[in-house]
Amino acid sequence: MLKVQVYTIKGSKVGEMVLPKDTFEAKISMDLLSQANHVYEERSHIGLRNTKTRSEVNRTTKKIYKQKGTGGARHGSRRANLYVGGGIVFGPRPLRRELSLPLSQKKAAVISAYSAKAKAHEIIAIRGISGLTKTNEAASFLKKIAEDVKSKSFTFILSEKSLPIFRFLRNLGNVKSVLYKNANAFDIIGAGQIVLDEDIFEKKVVKKAK
User: Fold this and answer.
1) Which of 1, 78, 145, 149 lies 20 to 30 Å from 94 when distance is taken between CA atoms?
2) Cα separations (Å) of 115 from 19, 77, 164, 173?
């Protein structure tokens, strides 16, 4: 039975929460996590890298000197790749690769990612986060728990009930937030310390802190 510490938005401990065994204590597949990480990372690139060929650079097309009688090599214009400011040969061009994962692998990767985080003791829970009204309150909470969890980056996994507080978290440095139903393996593995919204799993507190 996996239990994680529950904090209030004031940063005080109030008990422990039991996490679902099928999601947080499953067998970890490093191969699947590696594959998922590659797919999501590749999809994050929008594919706009580009270099200009000799037909695209803005230079004169005039032949630089006559073809024969100079003792030098034959040349056309200064658009050639040989010259500084000329076109690039075989340089990167716009490319958008759409890698994907089957739905079954996406779900399995999320479970492996959560289980890996749980095994590394990088998950805590927060109670009453939907009551946040200011960014300063979230900053104060993180400042208080930073020493306990020994982490500098945090990812809030939120319930739909807590959707309005996204605007209070987005201005904090080293903080990300994502809905529980939308979190993928890439979000979880690179999450730093995961802060789970207690409302995701109702009635899971098993004991109170003394």
Assistant:
1) 78
2) 10, 61, 28, 26
> Alpha-carbon distance 165 to 158, whole Å?
9
**200 and 142 in one domain?**
yes
Residue 181 is classified by DSSP as T
Measured distance CA(28)–CA(184) in Å, rounded: 15
The residue range of the domain holding 105 is: 3-46+98-207
pTM above 0.70, yes or no: yes
Asked if residue 141 lies in contact with residue 178, where contact means CB atoms within 8 angstroms, the answer is: no
pLDDT values of the chain reduced to their tens digit, one per residue, 210 residues: 788 999 998 888 898 999 999 899 999 999 999 999 999 988 888 888 899 999 999 999 999 999 999 999 999 999 999 999 999 999 998 887 788 999 999 999 999 999 999 999 999 999 988 888 889 988 988 888 888 888 889 999 999 888 888 988 988 888 999 999 999 999 999 889 999 999 888 754 444 444
Count of domains for the chain = 2
CA pair distance 155, 176, nearest whole angstrom: 5
Taking residue 66's Cβ as centre, other Cβ atoms within 10 Å add up to 9
